[in-house]
Amino acid sequence: MRPNPIIQNAIAILVLATLSVSAQSGSRPVNERSLDYSRIHFGDRIEVDIVGSLQDDWSGSLGPEGFLSGYQLLDEPLYALCMTTDELSAALTERLSKLIKRPEVVVRITDKTNRPPAVLTGAVRSPRKFQLRRPVRLQEILILAGGLGDKSSGSVQIYRPGGLSCAAGEAVNRAAGRFIDVEIAKLLAGSPEANPEIGSGDLVTVLEASPIFIVGGVASPGQISTRGDMTLSRVIDSAGGLLSSAEPTRIRVFKRGGSDAPVEYNLLRIRAGSDSDPRIDAFDVIDVPQKGRSRSFTSPYLRELPQGTPSLELPVTIID
Asked: Among 296, 298, 299, 262, which residue's Cα sits nearest to residue 278?
């Protein structure tokens, strides 16, 4: 039967509680390089102070390639992305010593509010953006987004663009983007590998379960979200079971990508163990006939499902 909304809410609260307890552990995945929020990121406002020489001071930010943008004293561009302020100060001291005798260079990051936000979308209760000003892990942003939505498939995919976040020990970060895949079951079980740090610019998507459609003589016809292996009897149970008017011996399954000719099954024989319970795949359509109603010989399958692109006009949460 379809889950009771009260039970669903109770499960959601339990999941959030589990995430909250686990999030406090602060465990770190094996061999993971911790992200370093003190380093220079895209969007930072940088101040360069040449002690005793006001005319040579500079304030600005990184250009799109990660170089200091617009500092006219430099004879060549200086790559500063993911440097610490001390590393950049040393590099500038070496460069400017050609122009200034024994320069004393002080570098500060004066504004971090324009760093690219991490974006959380997909099957969560409240998709949003996060301005990160301290280390944060996947668990915490899921909690702040209200937890998992009803259509979650149990998987999370994180896309980390190259150069938008800085790992400890990396003075220069030119790495290409990469994907990180996480299983929610492992996250809830407390696996450190399933709870990665989230960096500036990360695109975090809680994947939605693919649908199965069921029409005709069931209590709740419509769309069923697939989680794990689904069989004909499980889908019918998830739709609330058969109506008294249903004809259980003539249930048809239209396979996605197949011909319009359906495969017919006898649910009574399946329940009795005489016939095997067939696997139902994502986007299959189950047609349960009803007594006294004529049945169509064409597939009810929706060949073109509406595809929505999640809007990035999301609320912003500051984590500091």
From this structure: 262
Q: Among 100, 93, 16, 88, which Cα is nearest to 55's?
A: 100
Distance separating alpha carbons of residues 32 and 29, to the nearest angstrom = 6
CA 229 – CA 291 distance, rounded (Å)? 30
Residue 186's Cβ-side half-sphere holds a number of Cα atoms within 13 Å equal to: 13
Cα 174 to Cα 293: distance, rounded to the nearest angstrom:
65
State the pTM of this model.
0.70
Asked if 40 and 171 touch (Cβ cutoff 8 Å), the reply is no
Between the CA of residue 112 and those of 3, 107, 132, 168, 283, what are the distances in Å?
A: 45, 14, 9, 18, 45
- Residue 32, number of CB atoms within 10 A of its CB: 13
Nearest CA-CA partner of 92 in 54, 84, 45: 84
Task: Write out the chain's pLDDT in tens, 320 residues.
Answer: 444 444 344 445 445 545 554 444 444 444 456 888 889 999 999 999 998 887 888 999 999 889 988 888 888 889 999 999 999 999 999 988 888 888 899 999 999 999 999 999 999 999 999 999 888 999 999 999 999 988 888 899 999 988 888 877 665 555 567 899 999 999 999 999 999 999 999 999 999 888 899 999 999 998 888 777 889 999 999 999 999 999 999 999 988 766 667 899 999 999 999 999 999 988 899 999 998 776 655 555 443 333 444 445 788 888 88
Nearest Cα to Cα of residue 274 among 237, 233, 243, 308? 233
Beta-bridge mates of residue 10: none
Phi and psi based region of residue 267 (left: phi greater than 0; alpha: psi -120 to 50; beta: remaining): alpha
Give the torsion through C-alpha atoms of 137, 142, 148, 153, to 10 deg.
-30
**Strand segments (E) across 134-228:** 152-160, 178-183, 203-208, 211-216, 222-225
